[in-house]
Amino acid sequence: MIKFIARRILHTIPLLLVMTIVIFILVDAMPGDELTAYINSIPEGEPRPSYEQIQQMRLVLELDKPWHIRYFEWLGKALKGDFGVSLHYRKPATEVVSVLVWHTFMINSVALLLTFLISIPIGVRSAARKNGIFDRVISTSTLILISLPSFFIGLYLMRLMAVKLAIVPATGMHSVISLVKGYDTKADEIIDVLHHMILPVLTLTLVGIGSVSRYVRNAVLEVIHQDYIRTARSKGLKERLVIYKHALRNALIPIISLLGIMLPTLFVGNIFVEAIFSWPGIGLEFLYSIYRRDGAMITLIIMFFSVASIMGNLLADLLYGVADPRMKIE
């Protein structure tokens, strides 16, 4: 197991190196740069820097150097944990991203847990009763959820629960009044944050249920007519035991593959959902960073996305051996 993990990590090193080159070239190829975007964001009426000052700032930020020289300088610093300074926040990009990742993880972890807890029983029951009333209702419902974009579901839930019913806050992570006055206790702050999490978590859960439940249904249907399932039934085992102990266990491999793909979303975030509910996560910040041409933030966030995806695939490979001991990892 240890040799397998070490070998997989060594295989990812060349991939990460190529990935850094591609990311750096793409960020550098964006029209304009972070200095130009920063100057253009200065409100009218406030003093703007002169041409000489702008050229001096370009020298300080080393924007006048060719991209390949800046790449190797950036790579050397990145290997030491220095991914540059955000011109907008005027602090290291790692400090900003570390806080935003936690905010994204808060809603995505709960949504992913709820998605699988709800989708697996629904998918298994739908497969066990193929072409029945329950299967038809679930198939139609999940197809509708898949067809609807996440921003539409989010806006509808906001209109229903935050505007009409007024039972949950519409946007943000904290109440404005609480931020101004402060919280009496830490428990009050936690409750307030949980209250603001309801809408984004519910939106992400509904978006995930549509695809995951259909995926589970198809995975179970592939094994439910196998010989060993018929043998288990012929032994007089209860149908529930046959489905959940024999069929579902052998259908876990494709489900684990899906889990490996979805695990990186714990840290990546959904840009549309975070933008709709003004949730201060990494997905929303990525959108703002592109608008601001904040090269340090864009490069670090994309690198974080890439590493999270690779780690998700590695974890899926490890879980294969746990789900099916016949699959030798080596």
Automatic annotation (TrEMBL):
The protein in question is named: ABC transporter permease
Major place of residence: membrane
Membrane-protein topology: Multi-pass membrane protein
Tell me the compartments it is located in.
Cell membrane
Asked if Transmembrane is a keyword of the record, the answer is yes
Protein family per UniProt = Belongs to the binding-protein-dependent transport system permease family.
Matching InterPro entries: BPD_transp_1_N, MetI-like, MetI-like_sf
Task: Tell me the domain of life.
Answer: Bacteria
Under the heading PANTHER family, the entry gives:
DIPEPTIDE TRANSPORT SYSTEM PERMEASE PROTEIN DPPB-RELATED
- ABC transmembrane type-1 domain segment(s): 101-316
Task: Provide this UniProt record's keywords sorted from A to Z.
Answer: Cell membrane, Membrane, Transmembrane, Transmembrane helix, Transport
Keyword Transport assigned to the entry: answer is yes
Membrane-spanning intervals of the chain: 9-27, 100-124, 136-158, 193-212, 251-277, 297-320
Question: Which Pfam families does the entry link to?
Answer: BPD_transp_1, BPD_transp_1_N
Q: Lineage in the entry?
A: Bacteria, Bacillati, Bacillota, Clostridia, Eubacteriales
